[in-house]
Structure formats: C-alpha cells, structure tokens
Amino acid sequence: YFCYRQRYFAAEFDADSWTTIYLVSIALWLLIKQHPPDVIMGGCTLALQLSRVLSPEEAWRGFSNPVVMSVAILSAVSDAVQRTGAIGFFFLKVMGEPTNLRIALLRLFLPACILNVCISNTCVMSVLIPMVETWCEKLKFHKDYFLLPLSYVLLISGTFAVFSTSSNLVTQALLLDEG
Question: pLDDT digit string (tens) for 47-68?
Fold first, then answer.
C-alpha cells in the first residue's frame, strides 16, 4: 500500500495549486450565476498571472493559437452577414411557410448545412437563432423543436469542413505543429 501511495500520490498541493483551485471554483460559481464569461475567464487568467501561478507567456499563449483567431474572424464575418439581412431574406424565401413539422425541419436543415460548410457552425447558429425564432412565431411552432436539432445537425455537418468546427480547427493546428 505504501509503495502504491508513494507512486501515485507523491505530489502534494502547494500554494499555487490551492490558488488555482480557489480561482477555478469562483469562476465556475460566477459562470453558473450567468455572469459574462469573457470577463470571468479574462479576470481569472489575469489573477493567476498576477499571483505568479502562471507566467505571462503561459497565461496568454492560448490567444496566439490560430484557432482562436480563425473563430474570431469567422464570428466577425457572420456578424457582418447577419447585419446585411441577405441570409435572413434568403432563408425565409427558401423555408417558406410549411404546415408540417418534418418538412419545416428539412427546409431549415438543408440550407443551414450548406452555409455551415462556409462559416463556423457557431457563427451559423448565431445568425440563425433570431431568424428561427421569428419563423417559429409566424408558423405557430415552438422554437425548441428547431433549435436543438439544428445545433446537432450543424455539429455533424461541420465535421466535413476543416474550418467549420472548433474541434476540427484544434486538430488541424495540432497536426500542423507536429509536421
């Protein structure tokens, strides 16, 4: 038993470990309470840096990853596309006014998958949420019938484009790092 304990539990918690556990606990509590995640995570990273648990390079290294920049750029593109109203106009013309739920889902999923190949699935979802809500009110369908299935369909269809899901972008970055 002693050998087992020495082998697997030799590392003791130090002050840095307890500081990290404390800050992560506070961050989780604040996230559960619906506080802004960007402020919480940035503040937590800054606190870990100021308490010298993380070096400045370690603290901010994640922002230099091309994945973060790609998602940020695709988010800006989706915001610009949403502001033009072109996607909303196109989708509402394609989706029409079906009375059958299955037909309505099919009319939503097909163009969403096509758009998802060009833009990140998170961005497509952010563009489509307000439009789906408006469309559901017009058709007298509850939006819950559309939003969760749409999220799953976008996740599945996003695996076919390298830049469409963040997991594909992370995998691509790791592959490039390894040559």
Answer: 999 998 888 888 777 666 666 6
